[in-house]
Specification:
about 130 residues, 6 strands, alpha+beta, 60s Ribosomal Protein L30, Chain: A, single chain
Length: about 130
């Protein structure tokens, strides 16, 4: 692999054969995150609670590698019900002080573990 796997001790354990974070040419790719609690267990609340857990996990992982929400340049949000779009947006928007990153949002038939939302991100290290 051309990239390097990054250590993210704040991440919930991977639930499959994948790397949680990989960096290539200054771009950091975080695998899709569901509402697992890093200490063990899961957030089984409504989609707002799950989105908050996912975004908190993403923030902790970014912090592990010296980045923050402002370094995110692209997200992809997967949801099992497009009817949850507004609730997800309300929580998601609160994590970006400046303009939010580019984003795709799609409805899917199902997510691992029966979760309602999954979010993956691409972040960029600054040039200087």
């Amino acid at each position: 692999m051309a990239g390097r796997i990054l250590e993210t001790p704040s991440a919930p354990p991977a639930i499959g054969p994948y790397s949680v974070a990989v960096e290539v040419a200054g771009l950091v790719f975080l695998s899709g995150q569901v509402a697992l609690v890093p200490e063990g267990g899961r957030e089984d609340g409504d989609v707002s609670a799950q989105t908050r857990q996912v975004m908190d996990n993403i923030g902790a992982m970014l912090d592990d590698i010296g980045l923050g929400y402002s370094d995110i340049v692209k997200t992809t949000i997967f949801m099992v019900d497009i009817g949850d779009y507004a609730a997800i947006n309300e929580v998601y928007a609160g994590y970006f002080e400046a303009g939010p990153p580019a984003r795709s949002a799609v409805e899917v038939a199902a997510l691992p573990g029966g979760f309602r939302v999954e979010i993956e991100i691409v972040a960029a290290r600054s040039d200087g």
